[in-house]
Design brief:
By secondary structure, this protein is of the alpha/beta class. Helices cover 33% and strands 23% of the residues. It folds into 2 domains: 187 residues, no CATH class; 121 residues. It holds the Pfam family Phage_cap_P2.
């Protein structure tokens, strides 16, 4: 198919508006995103995905360096004879490393034609802009939760969750602080009756409480910033059980809201979080770093591929601030169902 006159005019208007916003003459050629526009681009991506605003995202100067501490989780109050009580917010810690990260939000010509005929030129430009920033932002989380390696040539077919784009938070902790990740078999069995077997739990509350009290550092266990990240497969299993048992309106409300608080912690199911994983941490403990001055964009209509492509290149990486503030059950260790009978 060929683009209609209306679609071509809308693309031209979008490209012109993008060039004006970034103060460049031709957006079809790669251009640097610096200064105020660097800040604006970051703000647009944070605004497009709510969960991204809850974690720590910051720009850093170096490709390699020490993890930036955004807080000191120890006590800050006391006294000292003949002086003032002082604690420090040290910058010492483990390292991070940024890698080349290239994103492309492509829109097929068939979709462009629909968008161009669905409303005004301004609406078309808004759809194009939102599509790019939303996809870039979501991929930051997709890789953060699922990334396990840095491949020279990433394969989105074999690794649809960005497993080979970068090492995400879970992988970093599993390599540098493996004791914080539970790999022993865990069985979530909401239908359990009677005595539970080893590794078997009837409620998510019990799993989260034990995870927090076993692996989170004692000084952090009652930190009000602690939350639980829980996969959708687990919440679905728990809700189904509650809904099947609920024969009163109040019980149904409880079933619908059970994933808001689990084990006394505020509960989240972030985009692309593995369905059978549970993680207890502070959201500020999850870091994404981008090297200052490395962001660049390109926006072009590719006739060979019959699509419009918005591209975003930068040096980017992930880090965890406090390993002892991160405790997780790996999804490979979690089974939804009863534990097997012990061997005779």
């Amino acid at each position: 198919m060929n683009l209609s006159t209306i679609a071509l005019a809308c693309i031209a208007a979008y490209s012109s508006n993008l060039a004006k916003a970034y103060d460049t003459t031709d957006v079809s050629k790669q251009f640097a995103v610096t200064g105020p526009m660097e800040t604006k681009l970051k703000a647009a991506m944070l605004e497009s995905v709510e969960f991204l605003r809850l974690i720590t995202t910051m720009d850093v100067d170096q490709i390699k360096g020490q993890v930036v501490k955004v807080g000191n989780y120890g006590i800050a109050t006391g006294r000292k004879v003949n002086g003032r009580f002082v604690t420090t917010n040290g910058v010492d810690g483990h390292g991070y490393e940024l890698v080349e990260t290239d994103s492309c939000a492509a829109v097929p010509w068939s979709t462009l034609a629909v968008w161009a005929n669905a409303g005004s030129t301004n609406q078309f430009m808004q759809l194009m802009s939102q599509n790019a920033t939303l996809r870039f932002a979501l991929d930051m989380l997709r890789v953060g939760f699922n990334g396990v390696s840095v491949a020279a040539d990433s394969d989105p077919v074999a690794n649809p969750m960005g497993e080979d784009v970068n090492k995400g938070w879970h992988k970093i902790v599993s390599e540098k602080a493996p004791d914080q990740i539970v790999m022993d078999p865990i069985y979530f069995n909401p239908d359990a009756v009677g005595e539970l077997k080893d590794g078997e739990y009837k409620t998510l509350d019990a799993i989260v409480t034990e995870l927090k009290n076993t692996l989170i550092h004692p000084s952090l266990r009652n930190d009000p910033r602690l939350v639980v990240l829980v996969g959708s497969d687990l919440t679905a299993a728990a809700q189904t059980k509650l809904m099947n048992q609920a024969d009163k309106p109040t019980e149904r409300v409880a079933a619908q809201q059970m994933d808001k608080t689990i084990g006394g912690l505020a509960a989240y199911t972030p985009p692309f979080f593995p369905g059978k994983r549970i993680t207890v941490t502070m959201l500020s403990n999850l870091h994404i770093y981008t090297q200052k001055g490395t962001r660049s964009r390109k926006s072009e209509n590719s006739e060979d591929r019959k699509q419009h492509e918005d591209k975003y290149w930068r040096m980017e990486g992930y880090a965890v601030e406090e390993f002892e503030g991160y405790a997780s059950i790996d999804e490979s260790a979690m089974t939804i169902g009863p534990a097997p009978e012990p061997a005779p």
